[in-house]
Amino acid sequence: MAVLKGNAVVAQSGGPTAVINASACGVIQTAMANPEVFTGVFGGLNGILGVLNEELYDIGKEAPAEMDRLRRTPSAALGSCRHKLKDIKRDRGDYDRILEVFKAHGVRYFFYIGGNDSMDTADKLGRLAGEDNYDLIVMGVPKTIDNDLAFTDHCPGFGSVAKFNATAVMEAGLDTEALYTHDTTTVHEVMGRNAGWIAAATGLARRGPEDAPHIILLPEVPFEVEKFTAQVDDCLKKFNRCFIVCGEGSKTPDGKYLGEAGGSFATDAFGHAQLGGAGEAVRGIIENKIGVKARTNCAGTAQRNAMHFASKTDVDEAYMVGKTAVEAAMKGVTGQMVTLVRTGNDPYRCTTGLVELQKVANGEKVVPPEFIDPSGFGVTEAFLDYATPLILGEAPLDIGRDGLPLYVRLTKCMLPKKTETRK
Amino acid sequence: MAVLKGNAVVAQSGGPTAVINASACGVIQTAMANPEVFTGVFGGLNGILGVLNEELYDIGKEAPAEMDRLRRTPSAALGSCRHKLKDIKRDRGDYDRILEVFKAHGVRYFFYIGGNDSMDTADKLGRLAGEDNYDLIVMGVPKTIDNDLAFTDHCPGFGSVAKFNATAVMEAGLDTEALYTHDTTTVHEVMGRNAGWIAAATGLARRGPEDAPHIILLPEVPFEVEKFTAQVDDCLKKFNRCFIVCGEGSKTPDGKYLGEAGGSFATDAFGHAQLGGAGEAVRGIIENKIGVKARTNCAGTAQRNAMHFASKTDVDEAYMVGKTAVEAAMKGVTGQMVTLVRTGNDPYRCTTGLVELQKVANGEKVVPPEFIDPSGFGVTEAFLDYATPLILGEAPLDIGRDGLPLYVRLTKCMLPKKTETRK
């Protein structure tokens, strides 16, 4: 079978990470190195919205030097979104529209970098194209700081958010240690709505029992107030201080998020109730039940974009999965997501594999019991063995004359529209 | 006059910074290099509390290699506190007690690393010793991320918190840019209760009008809701997104902290009101008055300990002020704080000076009008010229085989007590 020749669209989806651009760079540079297959490489402005709205731009017009720097730029430089396509069984309009735009622009390859939902979208697009007898190769590239995709050993983006948060916990932990006579406890909230991988990863900061974090709250372990306060009390007796990491998705035994149930319903200036975060809820419990002062840290979106201290392993693997997706596509592979396959742990070795998009779309991987300490408040050696290799190495960084990182903003040369504007 | 021979006590006070240990290291290594003057170098456990409680430890017993690493360790490794001494006019008991402990341990030099209050304490101690005819040399070493000490061009600790926050804002700003169709605004809260230096410093991240931060809220500029929402609206029209940096000490025109007045009074699980932060208050205003989604980031204590991306200029200067304090003390100078004196800006040059402790204790330096943009929502070129040199260079970092920084914890070999335990 002859190699399919045509244009490629690459798009990013969902929450940004430190390394999703490294994956995009892997896709783009590999595709551009094969112009006999990929006649053009286009970006979708703001992910799938850019395809729906026919807002595509020509990545070939970007300066090659900037493309190199894309690899070292955090967030989603192609533009992302959280747009949920309509249910294809009820309304296939969105999917038909995407195919219409693809056909109008001679797009034969679609590389979608994202999580579960994105893999589902890519899968359905591929199937629909098949029904239409339109040759379209769709490949998924995994991305999520949450590390909750099934069928892959780990997810690009996780290693870097893990390295940054473990470091921040180590550093803020020293703060609590130095000031324990005044600020006795600290609650450090990290991302991870459904899975506790990021919270668990801060356990890497703990080289000895004295070190932060002393307590880790995972969404996988129901939060019981009495058990928690007993654990804090115990820690205060031992160390005069307590540093707690709280996954934002931590829940009560009846399944309510802590921010919703245990904690602070804020009322704003206009009398509307606002939902506080899990960290604030835990702080309230400590101050009121135990009676010691607690502080909260919550780096928010800064944590998932912390390229300034990203994991080199993560950046390299992110590039590799992008590159591999293109190489597989050139061999005619379609409807698959590239996975990371760990082939050794000492020394760590990792290669790539493939899995059907459909399978990924329906899986979710939470932190398994063997990675959770029997107390429910920490992680096991097995988890540390799993996570340590993922944070190794420091990704190279370009620093400007102003002392700050040099990150790239694409010029995004828009393609002229070829279809009727969609209402 | 013969050089005073005796033991030295070094102590840290107040909130930790990335570089207060570099200053301690400057004091310790310089004192230890002069054993003919400094017969012993002792640390005060938890700052002045360690002196009051006669909890002193022998720094000479620490491994020299660990001492080198102290220079690259964030937070206050000697131990800090926020203990406020009693007013000397009403009750000089605390001061007498400190002198009692100093006398018992042959302490002739006291190096106090801290902010306004610490300089005041050191000053009073020096005067009291003089009244008692006890030869004691007291020297102040400046430290505060808040950069609000008078008589010094800038304060060790500021450059590093500025570099980290500017970088975090740059990175989180790219997140808001990528996801503006979903998370349209971000409020990034930074430290600085009375002065807006840290908030102002995030302006360094803004290389062009599109870049974050688009709006900076300083405690120096009263927060007016209508003016603010108009500014956000304007930014949304221009860029489809808005990234706001909010100093934690931002206040309403009638002088109330935003967290207190404008925003969210959280009620915890037990019905107690909790004071929300300034960032949450601003988020509430955006969501309710403008009707777009807002996120908040608040790195908390992690920001002031971010040695993993500290300013080399800051670390070097922090060491220099510690070293200079000892050198001055050896010349018989007392009752002075070491200052930083900028002697050139292009290229940047900085040397040290001295100022009477008493003067420093009563001064506070807020961001002056010429550094604040006429709009009240940003900084001027003059400010950028002032701040840029302070964040230049990346401080060297030791990374362990586990991919995380290697920081030091002192062994703190306690000295036997020589006085009655204080009740």
Give an overview of the whole structure.
- The structure is a homodimer of 423-residue chains.
- With 423 residues, chain A is of the alpha/beta class.
- Chain A is built from 14 helices and 13 strands.
- The first copy, chain A, has helices at 20-32, 48-52, 64-70, 93-104, 116-131, 158-178, 197-201, 225-239, 258-261, 278-290, 301-304, 312-330, 357-361, 381-387, and strands at 6-12, 38-44, 56-58, 107-114, 137-142, 185-190, 215-217, 242-247, 265-267, 273-275, 294-298, 336-345, 348-356.
- The longest helix of chain A has 21 residues, at 158-178.
- The first copy, chain A, is elongated and about 70 Å long.
- The relative contact order of chain A is 0.18.
- Chains A and B meet through helix 6, strand 9, helix 10, strand 11 and helix 11 of A and helix 6, strand 9, helix 10, strand 11 and helix 11 of B.
- Strand 9 (265-267) of chain A pairs antiparallel with strand 9 of chain B.
Task: Summarize the entry for a quick read.
Two copies of one chain form a homodimer. Chain A has helices at 20-32, 48-52, 64-70, 93-104, 116-131, 158-178, 197-201, 225-239, 258-261, 278-290, 301-304, 312-330, 357-361, 381-387; strands spanning 6-12, 38-44, 56-58, 107-114, 137-142, 185-190, 215-217, 242-247, 265-267, 273-275, 294-298, 336-345, 348-356.
